[in-house]
């Protein structure tokens, strides 16, 4: 039986000869994949050249993210060069910085100052892109709450965190690929995703010591299974930032809040400390204090309405990376280029004689337990301050309490209102696509 060509090669042929599926089927009989790939690239180059001629005089000015994402290469020989032939291309649905279906192209980086990824429209115009050397992180994540398996690729530019506009105006790039079903894989009718895209990206990122990263159960996995695909592990935590809902991912290199604008990526090296607030029976809030590299004041980011079922896993992640201790922030910042390596557990004080959490008796007590203990202490103090009406002893404080309790609202009503404020939160609107509001 003749050996079949790889799914990567098949995908390139399907893109190049999209109008002639009969040719794609006949070309699969050839065994020389290098020749087939070169042929596919050549045909795609011809398509681009023809559309470029038709688009003369229509070229629009690229917005700041395109120029800025190049991060100062100052050359037309990189991803912005319209004559540069792509080594990989596919029709892709983008959700950032534009919600649009475009042709994604990877331009080979012959040296460390050229090449990159770009999005091209049907007229051959480059909509946006980024150079390989301008990439800080490339993250591949399963898209939550979708019946059909799909994955989002998130490209984070250098210097971007999402809390404030980056100096050069660069923005993340997000696109979606669909994972073929077992039947589609067996038939070979669709490219093997996300594997094809990951392989193509890693080949170009390797020269910069970078690679695609994934969600990892060793870092964090939700105790709640994937709602739309039973039995699958979920790596996300639904949360709100203000009025915007999204998903938190706790990764080996930082915390990501996606997939709506503004997308946030908080590297471990930029986190000063993490704490918990509004700890209730069903939900809690996560507060992340972020350091600024430009000398400005630290900024606190609050994520609300996190499910209590994920508290233990998040707390374990926080402690593993020592994010609960603000005194270690400078050490994390100094290890900016090695943040993915887990830190070894300390057995005693550090080099400066600082006492670790376990020595003062508080190390084994979680933030949730501390909050519950504090609430219980407050209730005990209230019970001590007031005696029952049947005790026969009535002080002026008791009279004030009774007067307040008789009024409409009282302590009991206030408590009920306070509880409802957090427990009756709105759910997430189910729908496809991503919000484009800034």
TrEMBL record:
The entry lists its GO molecular-function terms as: histone binding; nucleosome binding
- What InterPro entries does the record tag this protein with? PH-like_dom_sf (IPR011993), RTT106/SPT16-like_middle_dom (IPR013719), RTT106/SSRP1_HistChap/FACT (IPR050454)
Q: State one Pfam family annotation.
A: Rttp106-like_middle
The Swiss-Prot or TrEMBL record describes its family as follows:
Belongs to the RTT106 family.
Q: Residue spans with biased composition (Polar residues)?
A: 64-76
Q: SMART domains annotated for this entry?
A: Rtt106
Instruction: Give start-end positions of Basic and acidic residues composition bias.
Output: 367-376
| Record's function text | Histones H3 and H4 chaperone involved in the nucleosome formation and heterochromatin silencing. Required for the deposition of H3K56ac-carrying H3-H4 complex onto newly-replicated DNA. Plays a role in the transcriptional regulation of the cell-cycle dependent histone genes by creating a repressive structure at the core histone gene promoter.
Q: Which part of the chain is the Histone chaperone RTT106/FACT complex subunit SPT16-like middle domain?
A: 234-328
Name by which UniProt lists this protein: Rtt106-domain-containing protein
Give the residue ranges for region: Disordered: 60-80, 333-438
Annotated PANTHER family: FACT COMPLEX SUBUNIT SSRP1, HISTONE CHAPERONE RTT106
- Whom does it interact with, and what assembly results? Interacts with histones H3 and H4.
Q: Where is the composition biased (Acidic residues)?
A: 377-388, 395-438
């Amino acid at each position: 039986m003749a050996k079949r060509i790889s799914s990567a090669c098949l995908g390139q042929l399907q893109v190049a000869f999209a109008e002639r599926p009969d040719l794609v089927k006949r070309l699969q009989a050839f065994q020389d994949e290098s020749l087939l790939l070169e042929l596919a690239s050549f045909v795609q180059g011809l398509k681009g050249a023809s559309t470029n001629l038709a688009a003369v005089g229509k070229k629009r000015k690229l917005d700041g993210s395109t120029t800025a994402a190049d991060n100062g290469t100052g050359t037309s020989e990189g991803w912005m060069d319209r004559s540069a032939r792509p080594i990989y291309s596919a029709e892709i649905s983008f959700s950032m910085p534009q919600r649009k279906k475009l042709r994604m192209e990877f331009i080979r980086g012959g040296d460390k100052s050229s090449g990159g990824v770009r999005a091209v429209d049907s007229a051959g115009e480059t909509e946006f892109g980024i150079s390989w050397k301008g990439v800080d992180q490339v993250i591949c994540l399963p898209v939550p709450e979708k019946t059909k398996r799909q994955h989002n690729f998130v490209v984070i530019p250098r210097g971007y965190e999402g809390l404030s506009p980056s100096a050069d105006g660069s923005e993340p790039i997000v696109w979606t690929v669909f994972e073929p079903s077992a039947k589609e894989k067996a038939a070979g009718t669709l490219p093997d995703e996300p594997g094809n895209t990951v392989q193509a990206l890693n080949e170009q990122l390797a020269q910069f010591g970078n690679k695609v990263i994934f969600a990892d159960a060793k870092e964090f996995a939700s105790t709640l299974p994937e709602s739309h695909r039973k039995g699958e592990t979920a790596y996300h935590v639904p949360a709100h930032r203000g009025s915007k809902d999204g998903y938190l991912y706790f990764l080996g290199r930082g915390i990501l809040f996606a997939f709506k604008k503004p997308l946030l990526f908080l590297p471990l090296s930029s986190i000063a400390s993490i704490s918990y607030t509004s700890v209730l029976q069903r939900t809690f809030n996560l507060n992340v204090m972020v350091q600024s590299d430009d000398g400005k004041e630290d900024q606190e980011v609050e994520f609300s309405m996190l499910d209590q079922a994920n508290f233990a896993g998040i707390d374990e992640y926080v402690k593993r990376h020592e994010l609960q201790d603000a005194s270690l922030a400078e050490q994390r910042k100094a290890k900016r280029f090695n943040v993915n390596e887990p830190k070894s557990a300390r057995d005693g004080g550090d080099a400066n004689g600082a006492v670790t959490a376990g020595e003062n008796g508080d190390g084994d007590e979680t933030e949730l337990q501390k909050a519950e203990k504090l609430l219980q202490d407050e209730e005990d103090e209230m019970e001590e301050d007031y005696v029952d009406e049947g005790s026969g002893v009535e002080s002026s404080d008791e009279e004030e309490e009774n007067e307040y309790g008789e009024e409409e609202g009282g302590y009991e009503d206030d408590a009920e209102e306070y509880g409802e404020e957090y427990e009756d939160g709105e759910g997430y609107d189910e729908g496809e696509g991503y919000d484009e509001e800034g």
